[in-house]
Amino acid sequence: MAGTKEIKNHIDSVQETKKITNAMYLIASTKLQRARQELENTRPYFHALQLEIKRIFRTVKDVDSHYFYPAEGEPPLDGAYGCLVITADKGLAGAYNQNAIKAAMKLLDQHPDTKLFVVGEYGRRFFASHGIPIEHSFLYTAQNPTMARAREIGALLVDRFGKGELEKIFIVYTDMASAMSFQARSTRLLPFHRTYFADSVDIQQPVTEPFEFLPDVRSVLNNIIPSYVSGFIYSALIDSFCCEQNARMTAMDSANRNAENLLGELSLQYNRVRQAAITQSITEVSAGARAQRQKKEL
Q1: Phi and psi based region of residue 164 (left: phi greater than 0; alpha: psi -120 to 50; beta: remaining)
Q2: pTM, whole model, 2 decimals?
Q3: Which entry of 36, 189, 214, 241 is 20 to 30 Å from 111 by CA?
């Protein structure tokens, strides 16, 4: 059985670890609140972009753009696929990273020629350790998602798509459905279905006057889409960042509770060992006194 010194050292070690996990919980909570506020501040702009794209399709029925499937259906696309995978830069966030990796690996199993564009050090290390090639890595984006970095990612993907190097582009990110639940999603980023804009946004005011597009409607649409793609990526980065912090808060809260339970058990064990040592000392003193009395009587 461990002595009082060993148990006391163990208690001190758990208390120091608890300070770290508690600090990480508070940091994650602050980052989560800030990220949610940034997402709410930028959402109206991209919602307005989505509205304008829908207005274009409602106004001009035969509009054509390489960012969209043809109106008659979805033709087979046999070229290379691209996949933007968003992970964290570090662990200690429960199953957050593993879920995103599983969604990406599922896509790779279905389309082995998929080219990976990775955000987050965790994802880079995973694919590198498994010998899976990475087309491009975006450094320092997972911990500090900004609109500028989203535009950088969007510009690269849109350029590859425009050159025909990528037939489809998917994005794997973690969606925060509520404060208590989140799940990894794999969503096609490009090309779009026309029905996506027709069904996803409601226009309160119908189009009553004809629009004039300069120089033409296709140029206007092709100019809007890159901004919309950047906004979608930024939203996915912030959403994933919120999920990461929420997962880290949950993990650190669980670690704090486990530390409290362990400290309670160690304190009980420490008191028992200490009481046993005191009892043994009293017994030894009593036995020595009794032996002295018996010696005097003899």
Answers
A1: left
A2: 0.78
A3: 241
Q: In three state form, how does the secondary structure of the chain look?
A: CCCHHHHHHHHHHHHHHHHHHHHHHHHHHHHHHHHHHHHHHHHHHHHHHHHHHHHHHHHCCCCCCCCECCCCCCCCCCCCEEEEEECCCCCCCCCHHHHHHHHHHHHHHHCCCCEEEEECHHHHHHHHHCCCCCCEEECCCCCCCCHHHHHHHHHHHHHHHHCCCCCEEEEEEEECCCCCCCEEEEEEEECECHHHHHHHCCCCCCCCCCCCCCCCHHHHHHHHHHHHHHHHHHHHHHHHHHHHHHHHHHHHHHHHHHHHHHHHHHHHHHHHHHHHHHHHHHHHHHHHHHHHHHHHHC
Structural domains of the chain sorted by starting position, each given as residue range(s) with its CATH number in brackets: 4-19+254-297 (1.10.287), 26-252 (3.40.1380.10)
Task: State yes or no: pLDDT of 71 exceeds 80.
Answer: no
Instruction: Give the range with max mean pLDDT: 93-102, 134-143, 149-158, 182-191.
Output: 149-158
Pairwise CA distance, residues 202 & 195, whole Å: 13
pLDDT for 73 beyond 70? no
Task: Provide the pLDDT for residue 198.
Answer: 61
